[in-house]
Amino acid sequence: MLLEGKRLLITGVLTPQSIAFSAAQVAQEQGAQIVLTNFGRTVSLTEKTAKRLPDPPDVLGMDVNEPEQIDAVREELGRRWGRLDGFLHAIAFAPQDALGGNFLHTPWESVATAFRTSAYSLKDLAVGMLPLMDGGGSIVSLDFDATVAWPIYDWMGVAKAGLESVTRYLARDLGPKRIRVNTVSAGPMKTMAGKGIPGFDQIAGAWADRAPLGWDTGDPTPVAGAVAFLLSDLAAGITGELIHVDGGFHALGTEPGVAGATVGD
Hints:
Structural class: alpha/beta
Distance between the termini: 49 Å
Number of strands: 7
Number of helices: 9
Mean pLDDT: 92
CATH superfamily: NAD(P)-binding Rossmann-like Domain
Strand content: 5-15%
């Protein structure tokens, strides 16, 4: 049991197709106790989805852009468990005008929303949960490789580059506290978040053909397995790392219109 005795916070579970749902399922199967979070009107959807897990967990409301809500979740977890062994940050959002080829015309307000929700929130959540992790632990986030400029991904790509950098700086500052911080760069998945990106199929379409191992955009299990590994003690020596779980796509050269190219190319 890879995660036996671990007490974990899992954010971002929305539907059974969510990567976070699969991560929650694997965590439970590997012996972890978990609590889920979501915010606003999505809490009721997460509560419904949670019933499909092997042991339906509680769902707490938490908007990561509201520090007092992070504090409230920490206090609740402190009452329940007294400690936290790790969490999954599966949170990202960008307004529609920050995606879809609108890069040159996106207003700062939309860029700020994308960056705060998708990157800065990892720091806020880490700092918020720090009092419960004085015995060490593991923080994992979900990424989409930001080393190239993807068609239509625009400011979300910039936010993901920020997430990767935040991961490294958190790893530096939290390492002395025996807290590991890593991110998993997943291949494209047909989640609600993925399908909400205009032109998603433009990115996902060629993935299965080009990835050496192939890629199933409807199966988040390989990503969930990597998350479970990073949350476990087997990854005790790994921090500040970006691990690709994308069928090997990242290791190959790119083609125009697939990666490393802007929409206008």
